[in-house]
Amino acid sequence: MPTSLRHSTVHSQTPDFLATTPRLSPALIRALSPFDLLIVPGLFGSDDDHWQSIWEDVFRGHGLSIKRVEQDDWSHPTRTDWQTRLEQTLQASRRPVLLIGHSLGAILSVHHGATHPTSAVAGALLVAPADGEESTGPDAARLASFLPLPDKRLPFPSTVIFSQNDPWLAPARAHHLAKKWGASLLDAGYVGHIGNNSGVDHWPLGLNALHSLALTCHAGQMPAHA
């Protein structure tokens, strides 16, 4: 059984139900099978070594329904264009959808929830949301059209995963945003932006969080935030 993420911040640990290989447990497969899984990459997309790409291959290899949102311009995003593409992809889904968003893809997922309270989305894994309001990095200006960040509770269960040394999201801001969005919160440790160069491979911690989120969606309950 995965570690519960519903009530408070949970610190990084390797989940017991996952092996150290990308082979998924029967329990995780059962939990994910009722959903269409949708990968939502962030700025510049997710390369072959990104955990999102690895998950996509692993999920497909286990017969799960998995798709990816493809944007026309990964380097110069606009919220209108990106949200249109997300909505087009969602329209092709025939089952409840679990969004798996990273960085700006996580922010896009939150914007979708804020503007489409009755969409097909059943839940969202929000990994390292790119905080365009507070980040001062060289690419921060690319996120201007996604501001301001939504500040209302999401209409579906969600989990924010943050890193202690993420240049795009300070831990205090992760707590602040998760509280506003009504999301559970998970501390991934010191893994940077959890992106293309993070080296997390198939990322068991994230799979554990996705398993917990799927079980929450099955139960039809919104996770509480401490």
UniProtKB/TrEMBL annotation:
Protein name (database record): Hydrolase
InterPro entries: AB_hydrolase_fold, RBBP9/YdeN
MF-aspect GO terms: hydrolase activity
Pfam entry (one): Ser_hydrolase
Domain of life: Bacteria
